[in-house]
């Protein structure tokens, strides 16, 4: 089975082609807010690098959020459009879980963090226990200041926003805060996260699959002259 994985959750983006557990080609880059301009050209490059056609793809995997409103909208709409046009299934994967699973070999609970703006963060909690990957706390919006009430033991913090708030985390949580080495989010890891759903044929409905925003976007009213 050929999988196309798409992640446009934040200012970083990633694409991967995975076949039977083997990554054929992968691209991860900083795109800022240029997801709509850069995603499709990068996809064409990826297909050319792997020397496969789009028609070879059997299933679309897409990071569904939380993340930036613009990035998620572009990623989800592209993934759903491909699923419809190719008549293939689609599976949405948590962006925070994708961030955390890169550090799954660590024994500590893993707390991925995205910048949710307005002084808030999007986070969750995961850990590999008894060789099984588990979600300990669901995706939610909070603040760094309130993390001391949520984090009960030494925890590994990861995510591209963590270097910005590393000092604050250390000050707030002391020895409970372990800062993970910076690693770019890799779309190919979605294949592992979706493995059980793929085996069970547990696909999402492309019509109803929606981004996980955690809160509504801010919409300003146009001023009347």
Q: How does this model look, in words?
A:
It is a single chain. With 225 residues, this protein is an alpha/beta fold. The protein has helices at 35-50, 69-86, 95-101, 147-150, 162-173, 190-193, 195-200, and strands spanning 2-7, 12-19, 22-30, 59-65, 90-94, 110-115, 121-129, 132-142, 155-158, 177-179.
Using only CA atoms, what is the Rg? 18 Å
Q: How is the largest sheet built, in terms of strand order?
A: 3-2-1-4-5
Biggest β-sheet description: 5 strands, mixed
Strand portion: 25-35%
List the topology elements.
Layout: E1 2-7, E2 12-19, E3 22-30, H1 35-50, E4 59-65, H2 69-86, E5 90-94, H3 95-101, E6 110-115, E7 121-129, E8 132-142, H4 147-150, E9 155-158, H5 162-173, E10 177-179, H6 190-193, H7 195-200
Parallel strand pairs: 1-4, 4-5, 6-9, 9-10
Antiparallel strand pairs: 1-2, 2-3, 6-7, 7-8
Helix pairs in contact: 1-2
How would you sum up this structure in a few lines?
By secondary structure, the protein is α/β, with parallel strands linked by helices.
Distinctive features:
single chain; about 220 residues; alpha/beta; Nucleotidyltransferase, domain 5; 2 domains; five-stranded mixed sheet; 10 strands
